[in-house]
Structures are given as structure tokens and as C-alpha cells.
Design goal:
Blueprint (H helix, E strand, L loop, with lengths): L2 E5 L2 E4 L4 E8 L6 E8 L6 E6 L6 E3 L7 E6 L4 E6 L8 E11 L11 E4 L3 E6 L1
Parallel strand pairs: 2-11
Antiparallel strand pairs: 1-3, 3-8, 4-5, 4-9, 5-6, 7-8, 9-10, 9-11
């Protein structure tokens, strides 16, 4: 059974930073893409960032490009999301997700391309 456990969320003022972590277990972490999504109250879950299995390719939603950075440490089975220059509109529950296809170099932005999800971590940005 694959488990993804997020941590690092919290309350921060606008302009501040957070680093989210997602620890994976239950299958070979290093061969699958990993993604971050978020969901604000009353809104659909939306794509934030993704990294391919090797970490060579990354892709970001336009709304976070230049402010957020996704990275992974395959030796630690962990993916990270560094959130800088946070804005109140970044307030949401952030979820990490593990991709379906091993060794793919495609960047996946749709929820259907991921088959395992964490429980989420709340990020609240005050103005």
C-alpha cells in the first residue's frame, strides 16, 4: 500500500515562505513522477507543480511560476515544495500525489494522471 504523508503547512503572513514535504512509502518512489495540487474552499482541486521521476523536468502552474519550487530527494523518498512570496490567494489544502507511469518524462498536470494522494496539509496566508 502506497502512503504519502505531507507536512510543513501552517499560517504565514503574505510575502512569507513555507516548505512542504511529502514522504512516500510502499513502492519504488524514484521511478514515478510526483506532483503537488491544492484545493481552496469551494473550489476544485488544481494543479500546482510536478517533477518527473528523475527530477530533470519540472512544470508549474502559471499562478505559482517564479514563486514555488518543486524538488525531490529520491534517496529519502521525499518530494518538496518551496513556497516563497506567498499571497492570500495561495491559501488552500496542499496535496502531494504519485504518478501512474514509471520512468515517464511527460509532465502530468491532471489529477487523473496520479493514482495515490496524501491527506493534505493546510497553508493559510494572511494579508
Amino acid at each position: 500500500q502506497v502512503q504519502l504523508v505531507e507536512s510543513g503547512g501552517g499560517l504565514v503572513q503574505a510575502g512569507g515562505s513555507l516548505r512542504l514535504s511529502c514522504a512516500a512509502s510502499g513502492r519504488t518512489f524514484s521511478v514515478y513522477a510526483m506532483g503537488w495540487f491544492r484545493q481552496a474552499p469551494g473550489k476544485e482541486r488544481e494543479f500546482v507543480a510536478t517533477t518527473t521521476w528523475s527530477g530533470d523536468n519540472t512544470y508549474y502552474a502559471d499562478s505559482v511560476k517564479g514563486r514555488f519550487t518543486i524538488s525531490r530527494d529520491n534517496a529519502k523518498n521525499t518530494v518538496y515544495l518551496q513556497l516563497n512570496s506567498l499571497k492570500p490567494e495561495d491559501t488552500a489544502v496542499y496535496y502531494c500525489a504519485a504518478g501512474r507511469f514509471p520512468y515517464s518524462m511527460v509532465v502530468f498536470t491532471r489529477t487523473g494522471s496520479y493514482d495515490y494522494w496524501g491527506q493534505g496539509t493546510q497553508v493559510t496566508v494572511s494579508s
